[in-house]
Amino acid sequence: MIRFKNVNKKYKLDKSILTAVKDVNLEINDGEIFGIIGYSGAGKSTLVRMLDGLEAPTSGSIEINGKDIAKLSSKELRSQRKKVGMIFQHFNLLWSRTIQQNIELPLEIAGVDKEQRHQKAEKLIELVGLKGRENDYPSELSGGQKQRVGIARALANDPEILISDEATSALDPQTTDEILDLLLEINKKLNLTILLITHEMHAIRKTASKVAVMQDGQVVESGNVYDIFQNPQQEITTRFVNEDDNPNAKDLSMTVDEIIKNYPNGMVIKLTFKGTQSQQPVVSQMIREFDSLELNIVEGSIHQTQGGSIGSLVLQLLGTPEDQNKAVEYLKSVNVEAEVINRG
Ligand SMILES: Nc1ncnc2c1ncn2[C@@H]1O[C@H](COP(=O)(O)OP(=O)(O)OP(=O)(O)O)[C@@H](O)[C@H]1O
Question: Which pTM was predicted?
């Protein structure tokens, strides 16, 4: 477990003192993906530097598995730092080294022999999906592939914690999603604790189970990602949630009148998902259950969080009126909110 206890970090400037981190208290459980979100200057990197032992808090403490990092001897700190892997926005790869050599670098520094280094790098290359590219140079890779090398290198020393510091900020949306999927896979496979530092709520929604929102050095809101998406308390959190095109923040693109005009037949219903684990089986089960039932998707916007699906789906149900009614009852019985917009 990682524990930030009343952590403050102040910097002495020429004529004043700048508080970069103020009274931060956080607990991050083993194996959890924990997001820290904030705009530039919020104090995220300062937190990370303190967690990696590069800087000490001005007051308060940061503990990893019960040990205060600031109190470790330099030898203990070196061995502790091996347990923390880092990936960065600009990858920080060595351009004169091949992919394999980049991944082997931390093992070389740790004094691991050549054969073991090779074996380990091969496994990691496979894990991050870069088999066949071992002898390429970073300049020959796309941004997403470079980040895969960064991830493999960060895992070389079998860390317990992976810090992702804006690791997807330089990538396009599709590549971002591929890297986030890889982080999720690694988290599950290796039971790795991942600290996801970002200014993108999308990255948090897709991967993290908990999140802390930082502003001016303080954690202004924290909790389960799903709850925070449903009900943000602070203005800044609402802004982040809306930036992610949150389906809760938007009404349907068609008005009810337009829906009725465009879909005059059958029954039109709006389903609202609030943390449903999977909406597809619910809908396909419903069609299978009632023989005469057919459906058209009118519109919808559903996003996935680690706590389940959120959003809404408007469906036109065709079939006997009896089956339409039974379908609505069925949806209610599986805890899906179903509002009848129109009966044709
Ligand atoms: N070594 C330092 N000396 C003085 N001030 C610093 C130092 N490091 C950070 N700061 C200040 O602390 C505040 C928090 O900076 P920090 O880099 O932690 O924010 P951030 O959320 O990581 O932003 P970014 O994403 O832009 O890096 C900023 O006002 C910054 O100018």
Answer: 0.79
